[in-house]
Design brief:
By secondary structure, the chain is of the alpha+beta class. The protein is built from three helices and eight strands, in the order H-E-E-E-E-E-H-E-E-E-H. Strands 1-2-3-4-5-6-7-8 form an eight-stranded antiparallel β-sheet, with helices on both faces.
Length: 182
């Protein structure tokens, strides 16, 4: 009887984890549909704001609204050796998806042969955008703004609950900072 009970418990746990995984997949599929719909819309009112807090070379925030309701926020930051793009997708007043892309240059963007000559230095590596390293991250949230999936660099999916909570806190802190600039 004890063996039967253990088998039943294991079967229930396996089916629950399977249901949870398929539930997340269904939510991610819906998020992708919402993402496509948000990007397909053409009738946005766009408001821009400065965001120089995060980089030496400046930044800009664009708020995309329909009927006074913000649907998307795009943040661009620039640095001498990198640039970043973060897109926040909003539904019913809550973020449901965040796309983050960072481009790290091989050397600062202003380094060219003239730069070396100006300081009488031997010419070394110069800026070449083809040598930039690009990283992308994706954050998927449920209707309560709980992070349900994080896809990091190299498309690595993070599923550790504790790690997801840490990532969620950091990314939502930045979202609220940007949202409150509006």
């Amino acid at each position: 009887m004890k063996i039967f009970r253990k088998i039943v418990i294991i079967a229930v746990l396996i089916s629950l984890s399977s249901f949870s995984a398929s539930n997340i997949e269904n939510r991610v599929a819906q998020i992708r549909k919402d993402f496509m719909s948000t990007n397909a819309a053409k009738n946005y009112a766009i408001r821009e704001a400065d965001d120089s807090d995060r980089s030496t070379e400046g930044g800009i925030v664009k708020y995309y609204s329909q009927n006074g309701i913000v649907k998307k926020i795009v943040v661009e930051h620039y640095g001498e050796s990198w640039n970043g793009l973060t897109e926040y997708y909003i539904k019913n007043g809550k973020v449901y998806f965040i796309f983050d892309k960072t481009e790290k240059y091989n050397v600062p963007y202003y380094v060219n042969t003239d730069w070396y000559k100006r300081d009488n230095m031997k010419v070394g590596e110069v800026f070449d955008s083809r040598k930039s390293k690009i990283s992308e991250k994706r954050y998927y949230f449920d209707e309560n703004m709980k992070l349900i999936r994080y896809v990091g660099e190299n498309k690595k999916i993070i599923e550790n609950v504790q790690k997801l909570k840490e990532i969620e806190k950091n990314v939502l802190d930045e979202y609220f900072r940007i949202k409150n600039k509006n």
